[in-house]
Amino acid sequence: MGKKSESNKKTNNKATPKSTVVKWLWRLFFIFVAANVVIFLLMSSGLIGYLPRIDEMENPIDKYASQVISSDDQLLFTYSQSDENRIMVDYSDLSPHLVNALVATEDQRYYAHSGIDIIGLGRAVFKTILLQDESSGGGSTITQQLAKLLYSPRASNKMQRVFQKPIEWVIATKLERFYTKDEIINLYLNKYDFNYNAVGIESAARTYFNKRPIDLNIQEAAMLVGMLKNSSLYNPQRRPEVTKNRRDVVLAQMRRAGHLTQAETDSLQSLPIELDFARVDHISIPAPYYRQHLAKVMMAVKPDRKNYASWQGQQFTEDSLSWLNDDLYGWCNKNKKADGSNYNIYTDGLKIYSTIDSRMQKYAEQAVREHLGGYLQPLFTAEKRNKKYAPYANRVANDVEKFMQTAMRQTDRYRVLKREGWDEDKILSNFKDTPVDMKVFSWEGEIDTTMTPWDSIRYHKTYLRAGFMAMSSVTGHVKAYVGGPDFSHFKYDMVSTGKRQIGSTIKPYLYTLAMEEGQSPCDGMMHGPVTLIAETGQPWTPRNTRGALGSFVTIKWGLQNSDNWVTAYLMSLYSPYAFARMLKSFGLKTPADPVVSLALGPNDASVYEMAGAYTAFINKGIRIEPMLVTRIEDSFGNVVANFVPRMQEIFSETTSYKMLDMLKAVVDAGTGNRLRRLYNLTGEMGAKTGTTNDNSDAWFMSFTPDIVASAWVGGEEPSIHFDRMAYGQGAAAALPIHGLFYQRVYADSTLNFEDGGKFDIPADFQPCYDAQRYSPDFYRNDDPIGEGEGIDDMFN
What we know:
Layout: H1 2-45, H2 54-58, E1 66-69, E2 75-79, H3 96-106, H4 118-130, H5 142-151, H6 158-178, H7 181-191, H8 201-209, H9 218-227, H10 240-256, H11 262-269, H12 288-298, H13 313-325, H14 331-334, E3 351-354, H15 358-384, H16 400-408, H17 412-419, H18 424-433, E4 436-440, E5 447-451, H19 453-461, E6 465-472, E7 478-482, E8 500-501, H20 507-516, E9 524-526, E10 532-533, E11 539-540, E12 552-554, H21 555-560, H22 564-573, H23 576-585, E13 604-605, H24 607-618, E14 622-624, E15 629-633, E16 639-642, E17 647-649, H25 653-669, H26 674-677, E18 686-691, E19 697-703, E20 707-714, H27 725-728, H28 730-733, H29 735-747, H30 771-774, H31 776-779
């Protein structure tokens, strides 16, 4: 007995070390598990590591680009922060191929787990840590990848990434509580950066394939899902072969998941990658000038005089009136979101429904390019060739140096050098003597060259500028908006920002005043010089280029031929103050000096203002303010703003019929007759030409029963212009843009505009009763030159 007991003791003593190890291993395991549970709980409560607040998790992506949609339901452009061109897209707008490819490739058990895939995690730990197989993947679920995209900063080393993983697990489980599986997929695809400023699946689909996500086919969806692994490596623009291989891997995964047959997979894998690539920027887009103007309008703040320079009094007045009367002006700062903050077009994912028609915008841009670049610019270049004062006019040859130095002081380069303490002489020497590599504009495309900044300024001044706008005469909707020849090089907007003298396009306003006061188109005068006495006592006698001296001519003949003596005669009948008030009622914002010479248009206005003013002639005396936007939706699709046309009655219905009769004659037999002769337009139209001092500004206004169009053409400065009136007058420099635009619009059957419309004039309306003077042959003007109406030629 004693020996047995002693033997048992020896046996127990031998077993003690082994059992002790096992016990300690179990203890360490339970401690490890408990520690992980504690750490997990501490992470969940936010005591360890970073855990986003509940409100952040409820709105994890708070910056979406706003979309501007055309009236024909095309995406014109977006507003976004510089690196976040993310467009909000709903799950219902995703192609099912996208979802199938994503789940098959990134997370096969996605619909079975709650944020963490234990099987996948175990596989990753075993292969990566034990077998050192780094190609096995990280075992991250789609939800964990979303957590990483949303909340994990870029890790600087592997150890930092190891510590980020547990936090992402915690965030993933919380995201699964807040969102459905479909919403998590949608958030993930909305968040990912696909390069080239294509953030989110909507931007990516448009950038690489010019499609919406719902329209992607299988191979396109597979390519984009393949890019999720590493969009820099799998870049179809730079590495098409590598990207194709990755796409084929995604297609193989879709086959394994049962979404494709082997035959379908083989067929799709044999296809090359075919892109319709368009890099996202805000220059090579439709309507870039409109984009710039709309942002300025919507993001405007309430005007405060202290924020304007001393010389900006008129701008402050105009902005203040816009703030009070225009709901769109300053809309973002007049309206608040649910959280009490103001809207922001760059981050709030708004849908802004524009009045612009993408087809008409394209035709307007083409018309400007064809006429300005293809016809007018070569003539201007030829006229200025070998002239030392070029591109300026001969009359200012002695002032060219002064003009150039003024232009120099307006450049960013000058301001930078000035801040660095350079004196004027040193800066001037730098501009004139230091060649710089640069890109310069040409109508055939950008040119890489080397020239001095001084020569660059002068070079770009040789290019003529233009502004063109077309709007609906019925609704006021702006349909096309071209603020210049090329936005990348000439960003100054000559539709709404730039204002120039309007010349003879002012005459219909004076004739309107005469018709309102009881005149008839067939009333008239003995044709001859007219002298008016200004308030200063100085006589004013405009010159004229028309014949018929001593003959009786009618008011209608005067407007049709832009005759200065008939216009001066009408000015003699009315007060310049009454005329200035009439101009204001037409919507011209810059106050006009109430002087007798106002009859010939020395005052400034914009293309935008002039287009709105001419709507009154079609709408029975009611002016319609140009309208840029019809409605705005928030990122959830709720309508947060609707806009309606703003109208003002200016003159009577009877006067409108009289004015239509006279303005039609301008096209049928007057200074606007080129629309008939050269562009073969046959429908009823009204128009007016305009030319200012020495051909500095060429204008043309036109309208049909459906469209009002306004165009200005000229140099960057008034002293840059044609020396010859044959090329510089409104009928030659601005009218062709209208003709080309109308031709394209009428040729597009999808627009439903026809060249054959008639104005709504009562059948029994008679503008006058003298049948002989009213006959078309009496009014016809076959003068090939056109107007002959520069202000500088109008004074004795």
